[in-house]
Specification:
The chain has 338 residues and is an all-alpha fold. The protein has 16 helices and 2 strands. A two-stranded antiparallel sheet has the order 1-2.
């Protein structure tokens, strides 16, 4: 987050680029999406479904997500691509998405050790309850033998593989030099399995497989782009926590071994290398290329206005602004270097 020669302000430009961690998207972004594509009451209806389910569980086992998440928007952002689907038909999928997002958030909280032992058991119960109710919410809409369920199993399996592989890098089991673009793609897409399940759910509810692959490719490309930007904004925090990223792996062959003030000094030098060595510009270029791939969806759906497009365009504008910031920072450093 620190540009050599000064701090990069956390402007609206940078803050709204955090889609790789959906619960960090600013609230004003959702207001913008509501005006652009959603109709009042859609999210409220899925929220009401989740609230009704709480009656089946102890008060301490709260089914509500701890943090705001962009995932709950997805069924409605893609809904115009399926003209024969009504908002009412999609509500169970929206409830499923909300609950499964809570499952992943709860897993991350438990895995990070953020819950003290007395409450860890309660957290595990919350995870179990949310996962059961997520699947239960779709049983009335998607038959047991439908392809959706095998796809969901695949996505959850890919999520677990991604978590295990990422942990191997963060704990020193694998050197960071092995964190290649191919590995980054696999981990990033694997950790967005809930979003992929939304696409599988939409095509299942619509009984129309034609859009499955193009929608999935657009979603995957968007998530890769957002993660590249997230990695650039959080590179310093990631280095401190030994969280691997494609950006850091370009300059750190191993996870950081220093701590405290020594690590701070090393990261100051690393920041100059990231920006002046072209690595920051490289990952922003990857993000913009991925957004180009995501926008190919418009060619397949001419005349269909998806609220989803406002999401990709918002991220593109912010990527371009960040690219300009990088170029400006590097240009300002040239006279000093001379």
């Amino acid at each position: 987050t620190r540009v050599p020669g000064g701090d990069l302000p956390r402007t609206t430009m940078s803050a709204a680029m955090l889609f790789a961690r959906p619960w960090r998207v600013p609230a004003e972004f959702f207001t913008e999406q509501h005006a652009l594509g959603r109709r009042p009451g859609q999210l409220e209806a899925s929220t009401a479904m989740v609230e009704a389910l709480r009656a089946h569980w102890p008060e301490a086992v709260d089914l509500r997500s701890d943090r705001l998440s962009g995932y709950v928007e997805l069924p409605y952002l893609f809904l115009p691509a399926f003209p024969h689907l009504s908002r009412h038909q999609v509500r169970p999928l929206a409830a499923f998405t909300r609950l499964m997002t809570g499952v992943l958030q709860q897993h991350d909280t438990l895995a990070a050790g953020e819950v003290p032992p007395p409450r860890a058991s309660e957290g595990a119960l919350r995870l179990m309850a949310m996962q059961f109710e997520a699947c239960q919410s779709l049983y009335g809409s998607i038959p047991a033998g439908a392809p959706f369920w095998e796809r969901l199993r695949s996505y959850l399996s890919e999520y677990t593989h991604a978590c295990v592989e990422e942990r191997a890098f963060s704990q020193g089991g694998r050197p960071w030099r092995q964190y290649t673009e191919e590995v980054a793609h696999r981990i990033i897409l694997g950790k967005h399995g809930v979003a992929r399940a939304v696409i599988a759910g939409l095509v299942e509810l619509a009984q129309d497989e034609r859009l499955f692959t193009p929608l999935l490719e657009a979603l995957d490309a968007f998530h890769f782009a957002s993660q590249m930007c997230d990695d650039l904004l959080d590179w310093r925090d990631d280095a401190f926590s030994s969280s691997p990223s494609l950006l850091l792996a370009r300059v750190l062959p191993e996870r950081p071994g220093l701590q405290g003030a020594a690590l701070e000094q090393a990261l100051d030098r690393l920041g100059r290398e990231l920006y002046h060595g072209g690595h920051a510009a490289h990952v922003v270029g990857l993000a913009l290329g991925a957004l180009d791939a995501a926008n190919k969806l418009q060619e397949l759906l001419p005349g269909v206005s998806l609220p989803w497009y406002s999401l990709t365009e918002s991220l593109r504008r912010r990527c371009l602004a960040l690219q300009e910031d990088i170029q400006r920072s590097c240009a300002e450093q040239l006279p000093a270097a001379r």
